[in-house]
Amino acid sequence: MEEELSEDGTAASETTDDSWDDEADGSHAAPSNASDIQDPAGVGVPVQQQPQPSSEAGSPIKAHQRAANLIKGWSKFKRTFKRDDPAGSTPNEGSVGRISRLSMQSAAAASDAVAEEEEGGDEMPRPPTRGRTPVGSRLQTYINRKLFQDLSDLVLVQEVEAHDGVIWAADFDQAGRHLATGGQDGVVRLWEVLQQRGEPQGQAGSGLRRAASGPADGHEACPLLNPTAIWEWQGHEKEVLCLAWSPTGFLITGGMDGTARLWHPSRATCLRTFQHSDWVTAVEFHPQDPTRFLSTSVDGKVRVWSVPERRELDVVDVHEMVTAAAWVPPAGGRAAVATLKGKVRYYSADEHGRLEYEAQVDVKNRRSKSAKGSKVTGLAFQPLAGNQHAGSSEGVHSTVASSLLLVTSADARLRLFDGYGLVCKLKGPSLGDARISGRWAGDRRHLLCGSEDGWAFLWDARAGSAPGEPAKDKVAACEAFYAGPGAVTVVMAAPQTSRRSPQALAHANASRASQPWMHPESQAVRASKSLLRSGGAAAHAAAQAAFDEQSFVGAIFVAANESGGLVVAENLGGPHWL
Of the residues 184, 254, 479, 513, which has the maximum number of CB atoms within 10 A of its CB? Predict the structure, then answer.
């Protein structure tokens, strides 16, 4: 039985009668007062990549062979993760394999991949991985086409066995105090983000749990998360595919059981259930009105819901599987939704929550002979100007428009759109047919994405351009760190508030000052320097400007993988010229 929200927004200690229980009678009766939904006060809180041929890369025979291998590789990926699902509505489909129902366009993807390779190469070669990294040791990194390394001293500080099976969704709340995760096991878990990491005991604020630090393999490993979950929310009968936080601290989750469910960190049970006719593939709260949220489903419908009234404000039929959605910030007067066939559609939204079609953008390789687009796996709008880091509460209601849209697609590309125009493509990750999407790294410049071969990628969206201007065409300059083995389904930057203070960082580095910096693969470094020298003064000026920002000193990254683990890495060093 779901719990009622009181007049002040806190969850009532007594359970409601049967008329409030969605599971009791299947109804969606509205509460008597819309203030029911006000917030509680004070809640702040492997597939290994096949080696690419080093010669005859432009040969048509080789290209078609690679296309055949891509299709074969997809089939192997699907079989690898296939499992029995007695409760499933579709027989013989399993976890990652069942996501392929949202993701299958093998022939079109292969054709696009061949066309991209004929343009000038597809995914970059990866160095051989060196196996498991102990906590407290440097993670393996590599660099492509950069003059300096941002992640010069990236240390594994924590590993958490979070779920039984793949983690499909994870995100920090906007206050930076909680991390929510969901995945294959159907459980939504809530984790506490430890505060004042690495500070002396006497400096820890009252009421905050301080993260203890201790040496490990010559390094200090200072955990980010309390390894015991605050809540293990049961409710979804199948896998959890998506989740989103409201600006006021509520969590909405969607899953394969066809439901979206509302939760709050102060309560142990589900507060509301919103029924759909098929899998829920995306959910997102309205940026200005947290009593509304957007949901999409493989039934081809986009829905706008009223939380207090427990009803649909509008339903739009896209007539194909919808895979991702996002409100356009800051006002939320428009919404973008993406489909299995590689279309991004924009809708205007009025004050009553009704959606009206505006325009459509096709996500595909323009030089490809295939007319079909690439399946879109994720949409993410550029953060607001005042919200410079994930989890920061500043600038949530900023009036500064956010125009750039990050689109992740199954053709191993991330694309940046400014309005309806393509700005650039980002190259690097091997995405396959897994449900992997990119996101902004907490600021308005850097981007993150996982991959199916265990690497987590970081790009500067302005790489190779003049300072202050967006990058153009293709951006291959990136860094990556190994967070595998197995697919990395989610990678994100931890909130700015979780970074150590300069004093704590200095203390952490004092015992390691005599240790040599582990230089990345020399061949990759030489290639990067050679390529960027050809860029002339503009490339060097852009690199110098980015170097001077020192954006990732003390930055923390969290990666989720297919085995259900969370990998937490902290960059203790500053940027290094190569």
Answer: 254
